[in-house]
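Reopening closed ticket. The problem is back. First fold of the pair:
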Amino acid sequence: MNRYKRLLSNTAVFAAGQFLSKAMVYLLMPLYTAVLAREESSTADLIQQIGNFFMPVACLGICEGILRFAMDPGSGEADEKASRKRIFSSSMNIFFASTAVFLLLSPLALLFGRDPGYVWLTVGFVIAANLQMAVSYYVRSLGHTTVYATQGIINTALTIVFNVIFLVILGWGVTGFILAITLANAAVTVILVFWLKLWRDYDPRSAESGTVKALLKYSIPMIPTTVMWSLTNITDKLIVRWRCGDAVNGIFVYSYKIPTVLTLLTTIFIQAWQLSSVKDADESTRGGFFTGVFASFNGVIFMAASFLTAFTKPLTRLLLNESYYGAWEFIPVLILATAYSALSTFMSTVYMVRKKSLPAFFTAFSGAAANILLSLALAPSLGAQGVAVATLASYVLLFAIRAVTAKKYVGFSVGVPRLAVNSLLLGGQCAIMVTEAGHWMIWQGVFFAAVIAFNAPEIFAAVRKIFSRGSE
């Protein structure tokens, strides 16, 4: 199997798992919006965002280190097995030590007058999510793509079951919503450990100081990188809450649900692409490999974004409760922002391939700082829409910076002319939808057809290349 077919095969496996799990979530979204009031939705989302903020801090970012280092641990079958055991053991030692410190320091949050119930709910959320991520990332690095995809489906199914019990039957509201996610993560971790007998890969005595130092050198700069975007998400919601109130913030929270489809596509592809970018490209072919794959990825993302923009209103009416329908006003801008977020995520794989976590941090810092400053500047006059515009501008800036800096590590072309045309077409769609210009439905159809016509040839050419190549 050549590297293109392997990339497609892994993407298909991850897609099957992700789409099935996310489909279940989207189908039950009307239930969630009916059960949770707007204010409760705002609080539940804020707890998740705070939890996401503390996740990399609590484990010293080691989950990213596990994924990257276990992908290519050493040469030779025997050496590779021993190297992976050393890496996993060293990583989990770091994980357990840092989590213990996080747990001991958690009561400090009570000094700031926080609700004790929500504090411990957040702590449990962080620990369970980190443990599930560490174990599942290790499974993915081993190449168990089917197992990794399946655990995602199981996780979602368990989350839904727990949500039905805690929200619908018991009526626990915000507590039930967060507790469902926490218990699902904990259960899936146990399933993975017994499924693959992962206790055989963990021996605290096999950890080495050199491996620990290398892992920390890579992982610690990933803490602020992840924290930046969690902080940005929290800040966006807090600014909307501050300027517009909890009710509008509750609507704004759900305006991210449709753009999340693009995030899902990106996640599916990046999971497979990370494996291919590390394992299937040597120095002489890596530039061409990245150029070709990015061109196809760019086309797929913009076609999907164009579709979501054209059908924003019917999708909002279908997926959200009537009281949340006003979320459609923010969705087109956030779709365009999410498209650039996807392109920026692709660029971040360059840093991962080279084990360069510091550039990932500095670029993320630039984008996050721009987002916060622009949100503060635009929210007073434009409200929640100003925050959405600020998010778009920050992701465009992030992509631009990464596109320039990534070339220092892997020389490949981002295809600026094609990217510019796609951006103009999708930007036109966004403007027409937000302003509800005359005959907007017709114009949406015209722009959507133009995006498809412009990108389809590139996609078809890539498919032909995949199935016509010999072994590589």
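Second fold of the pair, where the issue appears:
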Amino acid sequence: MVVIRLLPVILSFGLLAAHFSRADLFPLVIVSIAVLLLLFIRKAWVARTLQLMLLLGAFEWIRAMLGYIEVRKSIGDDWTRLAIILTVVALLTALSGLVFQGKSLKKRYKLGR
């Protein structure tokens, strides 16, 4: 059941790994995948670290979106759909950190009040 609760986190880091792979940033691909191993450590710092990394990941999606929009504008293509999709992905990534606020994951990662 824990895996289902952590699915948004796993999906978010998987999408970040794919994004970094497309940009040929293989050290960040490895980090995006390896950080999932932290999920096996039942400590509060793990949850907080992952929440921070997910927030940074959301900022990366926004940064990438702005760059892609500029490219689309420069070649005269429509960029609206791109902006909508990447905004949703950024929100999903940022909000994925909220799974650690659920009762079962708070208990699992020993998060205090």
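Update: turned out to be a display glitch only; the data is intact. The CA atoms of residues 66 and 83 lie 8 Å apart. Helices lie at 2-5, 7-22, 26-34, 44-74, 80-95, 103-108. Please close again.
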